[in-house]
Amino acid sequence: MRRQPVLVYDGDCAFCTSSVRFAQRRLRPRCAATPWQFADLAELGVSRRRAEHEVLWVTPAGAVHGGAQAVAKLLLSAPCGWPVVGALLTLPPVRWIAHGVYRLIARNRHRMPGGTAACALPSAPATRKPA
Predict the structure, then answer these.
(1) Judging by DSSP bridges, how do beta strands 56-58 and 6-9 pair with one another?
(2) What is the mean pLDDT of the chain?
């Protein structure tokens, strides 16, 4: 069993990588952080599809939290006042708003500072248009 939570993010996305590095430097969360491309997803109990679409927080017991709730868990693990912000992100209606904001950022991460075309989320197979 792992001794600390794992933050799983998209290592091919410059915006995601920069965000995680910023969090590690400034917030100092108590977790390991790894790009999904280098993680043992099966061991973590996470599908590749889910890892491609959202940041994930995997607890030592194997519970998986995604998106805004993964961010909330990261904040809850940080020192100082960050746990207060993390706790707020878990409460309705802030939780619902955080989910919407997270989805908006995730869909547009290639447009965010430091983002590149490689940061764009993969299209779902059913929504791809023929060339």
Answers:
(1) antiparallel
(2) 89
